[in-house]
Amino acid sequence: MEDLALKNRLSVLWLINGVGGLASTVLEVYEPGVIDQITSGEKGGNGFLLVISILLLFPLVMAFLCQTLKDKANRRVNIIMGAVNAVLAVVVLLLYLEDRFVLAIGPASGIVFSALIIWYAYKWSKG
Q: Do 106 and 21 meet the contact criterion of CB atoms below 8 Å apart?
């Protein structure tokens, strides 16, 4: 029963992480001229949209995997992918801090929630 509660906790943390990333993306798109920059290719064009799509799907896939993987694999995947997500969040945070502080809230929360994911997965019994 404890493993099910931990799987649920990790899934919720991944979902919160994803919502934070989505909120930052929505705030960025509402900045004046951003959509024009994306459609004109000035801001990366289709490659930019592909990267954003992958980054937004990443936590959702992880939330699903938390519920479906066996315990040992689940623990390892959450530690590794939590670390990858934290590094990505730091990179995005550093990019946002240059321009708009409000947009840094999503990546900053991503760092906090990634740390919690790593912590809970690390504490999980190695069984």
A: yes
